Amino acid sequence: MKSFAALYARVDETTRTSLKVAALVDYFRTASDDDKLWTIALFTGRRPKRTITAGKLREWASEIVQIEPWLFEESYSIVGDLAETISLVLPDPSQHQNQSLTHWITYIKSLSTLDDEGRKAGILAAWDSLPDMQRFLFTKLLTGGFRVGVSAKLITKALAQATDQDAGVLTHKLMGGWTPETTTFADLVLTNDPTADLSKPYPFYLAYGVDVVDDLGPPADWNAERKWDGIRGQFILRGGEHHVWSRGEDLMTDRFPELAQLRDYLPDGTVIDGEVLCFASETPLSFNALQKRIGRQTVPKKLLTEAPVILMAYDILEHQGRDIRDQPLRERREILRGLLSDISTDAPIRLSQSVTFSTWDDLRHERSRSRELNAEGLMLKRHDSPYLAGRKRGDWWKWKVDPLTIDAVMIYAQSGSGRRANLFTDYTFAVWNGNELTPFTKAYSGLTDAEFREITAWVRKNTLQKFGPVRQVPPEHVFEIAFEGIQASPRHKSGVALRFPRMLRWRQDKPVSEANTLDDLNEMLKTYG
Asked: How far is CA 443 from its chain centroid?
C-alpha cells in the first residue's frame, strides 16, 4: 500500500500529463503483478463494491476521537471529502503494517462477510495501523468511491512505455468485462491472445465539438449524419454469441433483448458501432423514452412494447472476423450498407443515413432541423478517415444544436469535492411560480474559478440556514442555465427534470424579478419534452 499511496500522491499533486505518466511508468516497472492489476482496475473504474455505509464510518470515527456527530459533520462540510475528514481527525496509528494494495483490497472484501461488530473491529484495526495517506486510500476503497485524476488513456500510455507495447493494442486489451478476480496481469497485459475474450469491444472513436464548420475545408471531403440521442454502443457477434457494450464499457446485452434477433441477420465476426435508440414507425423517439429502460437489468414486457429499441448503425469495425478500422470511412460505410441492404425492416437495426449537402449553408439548415427529428445535431466525418481510438482532432467532429436555456435563481449552495472542497460550487436553482420560487434543478459546472471564489465568499457572509453541508441563501443571484433536454418528472416538485444542466453564465445584469417562471418551463416541456 505504501508504493500505491506514493503513486496516488504523485498523480494527485500535479495537473501535468507528463508527470502523471512518469509516475505511472515508475510504478508499473516496480510494483508486484497483483498490485499492478488492481491499480489498473481502480484507475479505470473497476472499484470494489462498497463494504460499509458512510453513516457507519462517520459514527465510528466520531467515537474514536470522542467528538459529537455535529462537530464531525461540520468538519466534513469544510473538508468536503469523507475519507479525508476521517484521516485528518483520527489519532496517529499505534502500530504499522507494511502490506500490499492487494492485501488491503482482499481484507476489505473479507469484511463483507461479517456483521457490523466484526466490520467495525476490522476497520478500526486497519485505521490504527495505517499512516495518513494509506488510511485515506483504505477508507476510499471501503466506500467504493475511489476516483483519481487519471484517464484510461494515461494508464494505457504508461503501460505501453513500461511494457514496450503499442498503446493501441493495449487500449483494446484493457477493454471488456475483466476484473482482477477473473484474470492476471500477465494474461491481461502481456499475453497476445485474440480469442481470450470474444466479447471484447474496440476502443470507441470520439469526436471533439466544432462551432465553425467553414474552416473544415471543402464540403465534398465530408460525410454528415445525424447525431442521434441515445446510447452509443457496439454490437459484437463472435463465436455465435452477441454482446452489446456502451461507450463507458458497460455490458448492456441483457438490457436490450430485442437486439438478440440480429444474430439471425448478421454474419459471425461482425462488430458494428452505432446508437441504441427507441424507435417506432420508422422514427427515432426522444431520449426520454429510452431513459425508462436505463439502469434496468431486466425489462418488463410493457416497456418492450412502449419503448422498443433498434441499433442505428454508424460504422462497421470488424467484418468476416477481420479488423477493418484502418480502411477509409467510405469503404467501411459501403461494407455496412451492403451488409444491411437486404435485411428485413423487422430486424432491429437501421443504417444511419448520410445527410445530403453541397455547401456549409446547406448543412446549417439541416442542423437547424435536429430537435424536430429528436437528434442532438450532426456528426461530420472525413470520407478517408480510419476508425481511431479515443478522442482525436481533425477527422471527426460533432456539431451539436445550441442548448436550451432558462434564467433561474440560486437558493441553495453546497461545497464541492476534491480541489473544490473549500468552495461552494454545487447550486440549487428555482424559477418563479406565482410569488414563490420553486426549485427545479441543480448544477455545478460552467463558471470560472474566480466566479466560484466570489460566490463562495458571498455564501459565507449571507447564509440563512444550514442543512448539513447545504446552505440556504437569499434569492439574490440569477444564472443562465443551459440544458440538452427536458422531461416530465413526478419525483420533482417542479414536475420537470432537465438533461445535463450546467451554468452558462452568471447574470449579474439581471434582477431576480426577471428570472423565468414555471410556466416557461412547462412551455418548453410541451415543445421539447
From this structure: 16
